[in-house]
Amino acid sequence: VLVRRGREIPPLLALARSDRWPLVRGYALEEIADSAEGRAAILDALRDPASAMRARALELLRTRVAPDLDVPLAGILEDDLEWPHVTDRALEVAEARCSETLGPALVRVVARGVQRDARPGHLAAAQRALYVALRFGGPTASSARAAAVGPASQTFETLLAHPPPPCGALSPAGAVPDPPERSERSGVPSEP
User: Whole-model pTM?
Assistant: First the structure.
């Protein structure tokens, strides 16, 4: 089933909330994302059992205003069992929001990634979370620096030595810098 532009919101809302295929739910959600019903459905999709749907909802939220997003976003970041690709999308949204209330959740992601038994996805998310926390500055940056000490802490040395500009600051080129690059083979952020 392909979603066609111009369809009415109720049938698309029904597809977004109840189709058995996450791809169909995601396309339907995208079609209604800018409506009031769509915004509510996006927030509901953050609790969808399919990780692809949670990731899609986060992609849609990255560029939309959602004042009530910090609590569900923090829940995703703090979930030790969340899929790394969903955590990565949540970190993108957290960076775009630059909301200090997300600080403790970012610190949790950093702490999870420095553990001896951290999976590669957790380590990559920890480096991204540290990057975002350093951009937040203040207590969030201080707590994230403290949490970045552990068996895998050598991964963070370059980022700690050369922190990114704070939220809202522009680089000399006039744009906020990109997050750390990832190695295509391992998924782990590579050194600059």
Answer: 0.73
